[in-house]
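Renewal narrative, Specific Aim 1. Our central claim is that a sequence can be written position by position from structural information alone. The example that follows is taken directly from our test logs and has not been curated for this report. It begins with the structure tokens describing the chain, in the order in which they were read.
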């Protein structure tokens, strides 16, 4: 073990400080110790270092400091050899070699300046030092004087201080990240002697991926402050190699190998005695060795790929010498196929291990996947935790600690729970027909559908098999798997091995200290997931009939957004000093899923009316798990579960919804029994008491003690029957207009913390007023951390584009579905995405080649399909208007109609000051959607005669005056049915004359046997099915469709080539005719012919070098290039290359490859002075086409022998 320490001691001149440093060195057995902010003058430097370090060698940066030494590094020369490479006022760079081993690394000891402008010198210094480090292991330790995230402030942070973006940009440039660490989360205390000092994380230990790869067990420990205001940081580096016994994990890529299916069939044909479930499990066990051997035969990618590359280059030289030797060409084709397969196998395996969900297409993102896998291994490794006595536990005892904790937690029943439920409690029960339908015979098609719903890359259970294995081998194993699954539904029994569960530990906080800081996520076997999904698919559709509307989780047709919108409405006025007393409780349920009592669940299912057979199926799944704890990649322990619902079981979310419905029933019963409970303001008519989404519970009540007592009684009763207990420490209460005496009474009953507004509910800030830019800092920072991560630099263009779309759809869309995002925030998010797309995250002007407004068009309109955030925000909000107009059955819609609309009409509501800010934004959007929402009349009873658009001549309130309404006996609330009799309309005679078309014009819909329906009318006047995507198209003006879209974007395109071709078609490549105005001296000439500046026409037509490439490749592909200029060629090919044949596909490949490689060679000659002949460029293009053709052949796509031979592939077709 090698230990390296760094400590900002805040002055080393005093003897007491020197003794503390000596004590830290001895206590942690340090081999190197860096002391920061020493303030030691040059005259005292030798004596102070002699007292502190003794016989050690040392070095300081005193020569770079103006007043007192900032950094002193001491080391034991018998243990390490330290060579100082360079130093500055803020850093000392060293190269360290361990004397008793061959290990070495670069270390940088940092004491950053307090001013962000001065720190920029440090960031530039580190960037330059990276060129020295290159690809070697590098660690950076010390006081960086800047926090990185909001969570690194003890009291949070509304906005990042100046200098954080510089730090983030430096981290991205250096390709470093925080090393796995334990100990203190906040390493700096503003007032160490006080009681309320601000805490921050300023001290860090950061490393590059090479360091993590060379020293996988390395970890950092942040020790107590002692007499300083900073924590000492100790970097422990175990020099012994990591011993790891990896469990079996099925590698998905082997399903594409020719040997896979014969191997599975051979094992599956073996005769094994026993029942079907046993047979399947035994065969899967036997198959593990064969799968592992097959996977190992294709592993060792790095060496294998290098070897194949050398052989490929050698074979290509042989072809050059013997161009007509068919034998050599056949060997070359086989080598090319093996090389391509090896590269693809590597990427697929890393993709499976990296578990990146958002990336769907790309080209060679292997390095990115490598970095993700290594980074995750660094972050997830658990090195030590605190026990109950506050002592740190590590090593072998650490594994036992986790196993014993979860054995008590999951493997022991709570004897205090008495699951007695009165049948009168259950008001809503399943219909007998629904209950019987749930237990119908399970079919093979149903089992197959359930299996194929499971994602290929989901983490496998203890048996190691992913769903990809079952899907790929279904024709062989499907029959027996179906019999094994059906066997469960016949016998209600599961084999112990099938319901075995691997528990993965996910930290709940940034720096977990205790075992309780880890969330147990269950990884179930795929066969069990299939059984569970069959049950889920049967019960899911009926849950809405028995679960009240205040629960929106996992119920088809309900949305999490309804809960958030209603919660915001009810929180309006909470900042007012006068008004009705009210309070809101945000209740945290301790270990919600993991402490559900099984007997309580059984009785709840009976109470809700589930059939006894269905209850047997569910309880057989829930009550038979066996757990093993996956600790640092290895499985430990094996114990039986006694309670809880597994987080990771497909069945658990739906069962937990039923569990929380019991709480709703208990609370309702307590309210009915109590005569003194008062409802929250604006909740009485609908009797709204709480909102629930899974275990996120928000309870509303009047602000008095009696109401609090009813809620407390309901929580106590729920705990006594279910085992689910409210955490008094983590729960919060929010008061509005409640007097101090009453607050004390309520807090005596419910001792929750008093919360501050805004607070977060379901990840969204509950703003009682307008949403400002400062409220969206968390959203922007989240996007920055996702997009502007140094690992993303390794992504290809297609990967970057996919990440942008993923970020926008997963992070921004959630907020944009509820709020009208401030324009300043939208601009900032667009700037982040724009810089990432064009400049890999660097904030550099002039990098963008196409206007962002053009990039945000659909591909069919010439863009990249990225959504314009402003219009997309409007489209998402319009969905709520649509739900309101179409009268969706949701609690929010009912509340709005009750409190805002009443007897009026949505289109005619006036804004009021008391209305919620979000609701006001909905009203502002009315003018955007007014002419798109149309009522198709049936019986006319749900359509306003005046305000809904149901008549072709327009909205009648804009045509006929109110005076005319009332004069002819109509009212404000008149319906279409008032003028509809026997499918004919009765209009006043003078109206028919005054308003032409009122009587004779055809109606949108005229079927009196139907109810009125609301439809969306697109910009062309055609009725379409409503969707946010359709709204986005209709409220945007994208312009006309481009003809060339099928030439650039199509299935099987090469993404990097498609991107270059897209720029070329738009004439946005930075050719010299476009940039010559920026040239200050000299002349710009085409790098190929050196005659005139290049342009799109010259580069792809007039230049002899390019023309020879075009002529050769296009003649092979059969493309006619006899056109006068570039634009003519694009237009002609757009009209020709529009079918899906193999010949057309090859022409598209050639077209894009020629453009891409000519442009690449042009840039190579200008910027790197590297040159290829035209034959070399042609060879690259042909190789690319060959690889694509081999890929088609691998996918069993029929390609004719003649086409293969044209492109130099002479192997078997």
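The sequence written for that structure reads:
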């Amino acid at each position: 073990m090698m230990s390296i320490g760094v400590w900002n001691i805040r002055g080393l001149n005093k003897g007491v400080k020197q003794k503390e440093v000596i004590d830290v060195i001895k206590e942690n057995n340090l081999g190197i110790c860096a002391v920061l902010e020493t303030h030691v003058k040059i005259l005292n430097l030798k004596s102070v270092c002699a007292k502190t370090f003794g016989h050690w060698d040392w070095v300081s940066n005193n020569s770079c400091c103006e007043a007192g030494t900032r950094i002193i590094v001491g080391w034991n020369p018998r243990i390490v050899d330290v060579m100082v490479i360079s130093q500055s006022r803020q850093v000392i760079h060293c190269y360290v070699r361990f004397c008793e081993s061959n290990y070495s690394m670069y270390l940088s000891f940092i004491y950053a300046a307090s001013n962000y402008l001065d720190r920029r010198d440090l960031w530039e210094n580190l960037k330059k030092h990276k060129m020295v480090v290159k690809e070697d292991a590098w660690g950076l330790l010390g006081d960086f004087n800047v926090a990185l995230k909001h969570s690194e402030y003890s009291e949070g942070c509304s906005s990042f201080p100046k200098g954080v973006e510089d730090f983030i940009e430096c981290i991205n440039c250096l390709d470093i990240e925080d090393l796995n660490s334990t100990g203190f989360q906040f390493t700096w205390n503003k007032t160490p002697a006080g009681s309320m000092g601000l805490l921050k994380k300023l001290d860090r230990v950061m490393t590059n991926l090479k360091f993590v790869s060379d020293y996988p067990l390395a970890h950092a420990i942040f020790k107590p402050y002692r007499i300083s205001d900073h924590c000492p940081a100790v970097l422990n580096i175990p020099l012994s190699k990591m011993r790891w016994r990896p469990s079996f994990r099925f590698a998905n890529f082997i399903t594409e190998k020719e040997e896979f299916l014969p191997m599975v069939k051979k094992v599956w044909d073996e005769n094994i005695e026993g029942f079907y479930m046993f047979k399947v499990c035994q065969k899967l066990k036997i198959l593990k060795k064969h799968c592992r051997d097959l996977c190992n035969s294709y592993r060792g990618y790095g060496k294998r790929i290098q070897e194949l590359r050398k052989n490929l280059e050698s074979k290509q030289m042989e072809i050059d010498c013997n161009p007509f030797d068919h034998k050599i060409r056949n060997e070359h084709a086989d080598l090319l196929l093996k090389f391509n397969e090896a590269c693809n196998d590597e990427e697929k395996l890393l993709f499976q291990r990296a578990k990146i969900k958002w990336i769907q297409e790309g080209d060679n993102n292997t390095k990115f996947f490598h970095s993700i896998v290594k980074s995750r291994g660094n972050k997830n490794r658990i090195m030590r935790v605190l026990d109950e006595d506050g002592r740190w536990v590590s090593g072998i005892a650490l594994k036992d600690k986790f196993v014993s904790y979860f054995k008590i937690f999951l493997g022991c029943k709570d004897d205090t729970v008495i699951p007695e439920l009165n049948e009168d409690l259950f008001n809503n029960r399943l219909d007998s027909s629904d209950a019987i339908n749930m237990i119908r015979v399970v079919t093979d098609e149903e089992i197959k559908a359930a299996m194929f719903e499971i994602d290929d890359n989901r983490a496998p259970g203890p048996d190691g098999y992913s769903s990809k294995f079952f899907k790929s081998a279904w024709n062989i194993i499907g029959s027996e798997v179906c019999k094994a699954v059906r066997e469960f539904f016949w016998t209600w029994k599961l084999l112990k091995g099938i319901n075995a569960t691997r528990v993965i530990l996910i930290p709940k906080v940034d720096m977990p200290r205790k075992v309780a800081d880890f969330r147990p996520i269950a990884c179930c076997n795929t066969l069990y997931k299939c059984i569970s999904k069959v049950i889920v698919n049967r019960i899911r559709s009926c849950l809405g009939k028995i679960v009240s509307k205040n629960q929106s989780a996992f119920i088809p047709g309900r949305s999490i957004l309804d809960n958030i919108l209603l919660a915001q409405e009810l929180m309006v006025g909470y900042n007012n000093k006068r008004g009705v007393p009210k309070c809101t409780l945000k209740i945290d349920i301790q270990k919600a899923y993991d402490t559900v009592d099984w007997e309580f669940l059984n009785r709840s299912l009976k109470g809700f009316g589930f059939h006894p057979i269905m209850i047997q199926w569910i309880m057989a799944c829930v009550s038979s798990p066996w757990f093993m704890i996956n600790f640092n990649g290895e499985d430990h322990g094996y114990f039986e579960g006694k309670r809880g619902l597994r987080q990771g079981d497909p069945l658990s979310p739906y069962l937990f919804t039923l569990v929380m419905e019991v709480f709703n029933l208990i609370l309702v019963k307590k309210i009915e029994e109590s005569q003194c409970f008062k409802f929250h303001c604006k909740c009485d008519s609908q009797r709204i008491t709480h909102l629930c989404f899974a275990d996120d519970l928000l309870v509303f009540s009047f602000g008095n003690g009696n109401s609090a007592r009813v809620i407390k009684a309901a929580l106590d009763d729920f705990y006594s029957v279910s085992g689910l207990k409210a955490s008094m420490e983590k729960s919060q209460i929010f008061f509005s207009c409640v007097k101090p005496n009453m607050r004390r009474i309520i807090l005596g009953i419910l001792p929750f913390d008093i919360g501050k507004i805004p607070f977060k509910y379901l990840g969204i800030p509950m703003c009682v007023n307008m949403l400002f830019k400062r409220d969206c800092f968390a959203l922007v920072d989240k996007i920055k951390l996702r997009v502007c991560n140094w690992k993303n630099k390794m992504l290809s263009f297609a990967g970057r584009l996919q990440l942008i779309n993923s970020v926008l759809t997963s992070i921004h869309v959630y907020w944009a579905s509820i709020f009208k995002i401030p324009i300043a925030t939208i601009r900032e998010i667009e700037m982040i995405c724009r810089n990432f797309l064009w400049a890999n995250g660097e904030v550099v002007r002039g990098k963008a080649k196409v206007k962002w407004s053009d990039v945000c068009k659909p591909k069919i309109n010439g863009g990249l399909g990225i959504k314009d955030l402003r219009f997309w925000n409007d489209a998402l909000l319009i969905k709520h208007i649509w739900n309101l107009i179409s009268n969706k059955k949701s609690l929010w819609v009912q509340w709005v109609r009750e409190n805002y609309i009443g007897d009026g009409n949505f289109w005619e509501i006036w804004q009021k000051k008391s209305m919620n800010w979000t609701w006001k934004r909905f009203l502002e959007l009315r003018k955007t959607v007014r002419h798109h929402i149309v009522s198709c009349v049936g019986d006319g009873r749900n359509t306003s005669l005046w305000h809904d658009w149901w008549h072709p001549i327009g909205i009648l309130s804009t045509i006929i005056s109110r005076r005319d309404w009332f004069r002819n006996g109509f009212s404000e609330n008149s319906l279409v049915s008032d003028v509809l009799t026997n499918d004919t309309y009765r209009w006043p005679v003078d109206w028919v004359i005054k308003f032409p078309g009122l009587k004779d014009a055809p109606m949108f819909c005229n079927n009196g046997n139907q109810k009125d329906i609301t439809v969306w009318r697109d910009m062309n006047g055609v009725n379409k099915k409503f969707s946010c995507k359709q709204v986005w198209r209709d409220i945007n003006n994208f312009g006309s469709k481009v003809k060339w879209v099928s030439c650039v974007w199509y299935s099987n395109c090469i993404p990097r080539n498609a991107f270059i071709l897209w720029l070329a078609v738009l004439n946005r490549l930075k050719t010299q005719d476009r940039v010559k105005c920026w040239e200050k001296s000299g002349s710009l000439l085409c790098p190929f012919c050196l005659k005139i500046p290049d342009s799109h026409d010259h580069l792809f037509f007039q230049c002899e070098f390019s023309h020879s490439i075009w002529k050769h490749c296009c003649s092979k592909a059969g493309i006619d290039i006899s056109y006068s200029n570039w634009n003519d060629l694009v237009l002609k090919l757009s009209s020709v290359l529009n079918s899906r044949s193999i010949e057309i596909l090859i022409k598209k490949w050639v077209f894009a490859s020629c453009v891409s490689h000519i442009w690449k060679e042009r840039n190579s000659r200008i910027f790197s002075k590297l040159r290829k002949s035209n034959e070399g460029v042609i060879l690259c293009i042909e190789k690319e086409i060959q690889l694509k053709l081999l890929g088609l052949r691998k996918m069993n796509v029929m390609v004719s022998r003649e086409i293969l031979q044209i492109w130099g592939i002479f192997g078997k077709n």
